[in-house]
Fold:
Amino acid sequence: MFSQFFILSLRGDILVFRDFRSELLKETTHSFFRHVKVPESGDPKEVPCFSIDGVQYIHVKHSGMYFVLTAKRNVSPNAATELLDRTATIIQDYCGVISEESVRKNFLLIYELVDEIFDFGYAQEIATEALKAYVANSPIVNPNVPGTTEGPRSVIPDVLARIQRGTTASSSANQSVVQTTHKEEIYVDLFEYCNVMFEPSGHLSRAQVEGEIRIRSFLKGSPKVKLSMNQDLVVGRESSDGQKQYGKSVLDYCIFHDCVTFTEWDIDRTLNFFPPDGQFTLLRYSISDTFTPPFRIEPFVEEPGSHQLDVLVRLSADFPENSLAKKVMVTIPLPRATASASCELELSDHSYEYDPINKLLLWKVKEAKGNSKSAIRVKINLEDAVGNHKRELGPISATFEIPMYVCSPIFIRGLKVMEQVEGSVSRWVRSNSKSGSYLSRVDVSNVQKPRY
Structure:
């Protein structure tokens, strides 16, 4: 299926390269890097899949590196990106941290992992736990990376113990790693991505949340784990008898990991599973129409003169006051005939940046408190008055991150590790909401004169 796999740094350095089928030249790395840095005219810069001279390139970016698969035949981009994400996760599980330095230091281990994941270009094994039986190399710990002074938090402790028992040396450089990674921990992350489209009138034309529960397990022996969710959770908008589901948290669809058993799911929405070592996605789901978008974007257009346009954008935070949104940025596309742009901000801690090449106005909010409002007025000077420049405004997009908050009514009610002594296992549960496709159209049919 796939011809090559390679990892490149942001400078174009080849960190890992494996040719599975010997049907392409190694110059594919240079062709890929040139296209990513200087794309063809009209092509966006960050497309995950493209073709050059009959070669298909699929890539994802992880920790400042490009993970790339090439193919001479037509392959599924979704399957390829999922495989690349899984490969990066496996490398992180074994190396403890994924960075350019860790890849350079552990290239032998990574080559061994790649050879086990792929067989003649076909994916054969993408489970972290299953690979433990075939991996012989041990990771090299980077003491300069925070959190790695006690060894990598990876699936390696059992692997290293097996390696030590089989070695003839009296001691091992990884002996300290084996001795200090005895603490049992399990991390549960609930991530949600909001996809929203506002009409110019302010009404929602699309509202969807795509979420996942991601597990990182460092438990010995893969004990049974119980994860309880809210009891009003149902899957599908209609019950088995065809009745509509009202007053409940309705999932459009959900996909479970293979390790999940459903003996208590119908009783109180509890998932029982035996977690494999490392990181995996326990549940993926989609929910719509039953949540309030965390931000509301309201744009207004005014025309002070024939060569001027004013765009007033109001941003309302519709989430609780005890939550705090971070890395909030609103992107306002401006007409191609924009000669210059300036802004008036309501709050002094906000900032903006004008990109004259791409004609974009970036409104940056470092932190946005819940139940708050803010606004920006963009004053646009046009090069000429010929043409309907107002139609080139928008759509306005927003990006954000809200730690310890979920947009949908989904929540984790409890987490319990069975057959373990109380207090011997550290359990960590957190949630995070991020923007997906978060857009607002601009109404240019009713442009008014300035209100000031």
Summary: The chain has three domains: 4-180, 186-292+409-437, 295-403. The longest helix spans residues 77-95. Helices lie at 28-37, 77-95, 100-105, 107-117, 128-131, 156-166, 175-180, 265-268. The longest strand covers residues 425-440.
